[in-house]
Specification:
The protein is mainly alpha-helical. The chain contains 29 helices and two strands. The chain is elongated and about 105 Å long. Keywords: Repeat.
Length: 531
């Protein structure tokens, strides 16, 4: 009430003058100053903060740190009191350090205050807090608060290349500063500190000079592994921020080929990263590069092979999150089923074959959900629509009945439902099963297994696979490979052929002389599932 009356001079100047005197009398007691500030009148608090004794200044700063300020109030406080608060931080009194940092954190969160805070030297002081002060010198971890304030100021867009961060003249864009930030990230630090360290790096990437330094330090310290681990951090903000940083670093980290492989090896199930890649429209570029590499050949270039593996791996990661409508639309738009089918054979890289098979498995698992019985379209004269067909040998209405997929029992295509049958991928997958590399064989078998799932027409699948002599490929895998996962898949497939394949499949399997010995070995040495 007093504050409202004080500022209503035009209504009653006498009452306003009296209210002002009462408020000044109330200022004699610190608790009153706090209550006045809580009601929106900050001048008494700020005046005591800037002009009072050291003890009063500390108390006012503590009050300020507890207040929730509007953006206008933050701007006013920055203009009136930022210099005094910075001086208190520099004084080294750790008892009230927490309150000082809280106040600066609030002020810096209003980006227009960035310029004022830079002018009073906040960047230098916060950098010193982060890089040189020891945690055991403080009653609280000042590094975390300093990083938050520094990140806020940098996000305001202030020029930082010329800002010095220590007495030796090192700048914020120097190896010294970036190395210290990376070093803190590589050591187990609180999530609150990590998020602010990453935001600082994100802000620094806006400057070409700083970006060059970050790339150099990341490569030198192999910090990319640390950043990858942070993607799966339980703190969602950490994961989102580090993904943004990795995407910005991608074009600059080592060679193009290693950059692509780097992205491919990030956790495939991370939807945030996949959406970020999609929004950067990387798929058309990837497909274009794949086409050029395949046209020029990879046999004479190790670089081209590594690049192709990375590009293929990035495409595969999109198939790991097909539950997201945008990913489903992407896979259909670019017909990834056909892309991976082509990659199975036209490559000299085992890794490309393995990745392509994984992509096909992910896509094929969705086929049964996407394949739907077609709606019959009717055409003809509306006037005669109700006449029964028996009245004429020439039907008045004609029915267009699409051919159904024999396996998925619906209208299928490689493009819209990722159907392996329509993509003619089965024969190529069987060829990949006749491979020396266990991983390629297992990935290829996993794709074939999707055609024997109980959700599809297994009898038809077995019949189609038998036409391609699939059981012989499976029996050969049992003979030539000893990997447990391969044997488990092989026996599962053999069981399907025995139950659903009829006399011919039973005959083919029973004539294999080495199979009984393999079964006995698996029974004695395999896990419970295999037994």
């Amino acid at each position: 009430m007093l504050i409202r009356v004080k500022f209503n001079h035009h209504v009653d100047s006498f009452a306003a003058e009296k209210a002002d005197k009462i408020l000044k009398n109330l200022e004699r007691f610190p608790d009153n100053i706090k209550q006045i500030a809580e009601n929106g009148f900050l001048d008494p608090l700020l005046n005591h903060l800037t002009e009072g004794s050291e003890e009063v200044q500390m108390e006012m700063t503590s009050y300020l740190g507890e207040l929730i300020l509007s953006n206008d109030s933050k701007a006013y406080v920055a203009e009136k009191a930022s210099t005094s608060i910075i001086k208190m931080v520099q004084s080294g009194n750790t008892i009230f350090r927490n309150a000082e940092f809280k106040a600066l954190s609030q002020i810096s969160s209003h980006h227009p205050n960035g310029k004022i805070l830079v002018e009073v030297g906040i960047l230098n002081i916060m950098a010193e807090m982060m890089f040189t002060r020891r945690i055991y010198d403080e009653l609280m971890d000042s590094k975390k608060e300093a990083a938050a304030i520094l990140a806020n100021v940098l996000e305001s867009g202030v020029e930082h290349d010329s800002i010095k961060v220590n007495t030796h003249g090192c700048r914020l864009s120097s190896n010294y500063a970036v190395y210290n930030i990376i070093h803190m990230l590589k050591n187990s630090t609180p999530d609150e500190l990590n998020i602010n360290l990453i935001w600082i790096l994100l802000c620094l990437t806006k400057s070409p000079r700083s970006m060059d330094t970050i790339v150099s330090v990341v490569n030198e310290t192999e910090a990319s592994y640390t950043l990858i681990e942070l993607i799966n951090n339980p703190h969602e903000q950490v994961g989102v921020a580090v993904i943004k940083l990795l995407i910005l670093l991608k074009p600059h980290v080592e060679k193009q080929a290693l950059s692509a492989r780097f992205l491919a090896k990030l956790p495939q199930q991370n939807l945030t990263l996949n959406l970020a890649l999609l929004n950067n429209n990387v798929v058309p570029t990837i497909l274009e590069r794949i086409f050029l590499i395949k046209r020029n050949g990879t046999r004479t270039s190790r670089h081209a092979t590594v690049y192709l593996e990375g590009l293929d791996g990035i495409l595969v990661r999109f198939t790991a999150t097909l539950y997201e409508p945008q990913m489903l639309f992407l896979a259909r738009t670019h017909n990834l089923t056909s892309v991976f089918t082509e990659m199975l054979i036209k490559t000299s890289s085992d890794e490309v074959q393995r990745l392509s098979a994984i992509g096909l498995e992910n896509l094929s698992l969705e086929s049964i959900n996407l394949s739907r019985p077609p709606q019959i379209k009717k055409t003809g004269s509306k006037k005669l629509f109700r006449l029964p067909n028996l009245l004429s040998s020439r039907s008045v209405e004609t029915r267009k009945i699409p051919v159904l997929c024999p396996v998925h029992r619906g209208a299928c295509s490689s493009e819209t439902t990722f159907c392996l049958i329509d993509a003619k991928a089965v024969e190529r997958l069987l060829v990949c099963m006749d491979h020396e590399n266990d991983e390629v064989v297992e990935a290829s078998m996993a794709v074939i297994c999707t055609l024997l799932d109980d959700k599809v027409d297994v009898d038809t699948s077995v019949s189609l696979l038998s036409e391609n002599n699939a059981i012989q490929y499976v029996l050969k895998v049992v003979k030539e490979h000893r990997q447990e996962g391969l044997w488990q898949k092989s026996f599962w497939m053999i069981e399907k052929f025995l139950v659903r394949g009829g006399n011919k499949s039973v005959s083919d399997i029973s004539q294999d002389r080495l199979l009984p010995a393999s079964l006995i070995s698996a029974f004695h040495n395999g896990n419970e599932s295999m037994k």
